[in-house]
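Entry 14: structure prediction run for Zinc metalloprotease. Input pasted below.
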Amino acid sequence: MRRTARVRSRAPRLFPCAAALVAAAGLSQFAAPAPHRAVAAAVCGGADAAARRPAGSRPGGDPNAVSAGEARAMQADLADRLAELGPAHVPLAAAPTGIPVYVHVIHSGDTGRLDEGVVAAQIDHLNATYGGQGEGNTPTPFHFVLAGTDWTDNAAWYTGMTPGSTAEQAMKSALRKGDQGTLNLYTAHLGESLLGWSAFPDAYRSHPTDDGVVILDDSLPGGPATHYNEGNTATHEIGHWLGLFHTFQGGCLPPGDYVDDTPPERTPAYGCPEGRHSCPGGGLDPIHNFMDYSYDSCMTRFTPGQVQLMSNSWTAYRR
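Run finished. Output tokens:
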């Protein structure tokens, strides 16, 4: 949810760090990715998907925010699901959980045709960020294993990729592989100044084809997306795929992002505003958290509470 995709551009372009959840009406949760409530959560308050966009990319506020009611419903569903599992519910996996990843590179001729080295660098970055590397970072039980990479030369998909679009639906219907525990990661030139978006885990049951994460191709390690080219767009969006909200969910009002150890944050952080304190009490804003909107270089950590929530969501929806 933090990382709404940014608009991609081959020419040097500044992306004021911003992300948002895009919820598509009747579709996934977020407005960004799929056409279902799960994806809808990502766009405008849906509970199924999340998106990230650079600040100032669209006037009038964040089109990808999840409403308080949607967030509450998602957390209630998670609690119900864990209760149904009973003794089968393991709050935190003792052993590493391998997640197979299929990377689908959408391109238009040579434009956007990422090579295997870039894909491998992104997988390595995910294993570093989810493995505990980074100042103040908490290791998660998740390990990402590249199961396959494919390349699709389709100009219409490459240039027309927006949440809930015909291009997105056709792409996912044609390319998606695996089950609820398989991560499908799509790269393309995204519209609407987005950096990426993701489906939330609870959306899989009703809209499995919409599941997955879509990111701006320029945001992979070494890409030309200034300030957003270290691989943290994927880290952020996969956080949504594993059940996390943005750190600024709910602003200063409890329960915020439903994680006790992330201080409340009134609005997204852009750049790396050290010492920012936007809510009374609760400590400084979590600008270094992977689920905020800060520059890639500023993001270094998940908290123990976020790791617990991801583990709970995995147990409830993706195991």
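Notes: The chain has seven helices and nine strands. Will compare against the previous run tomorrow.
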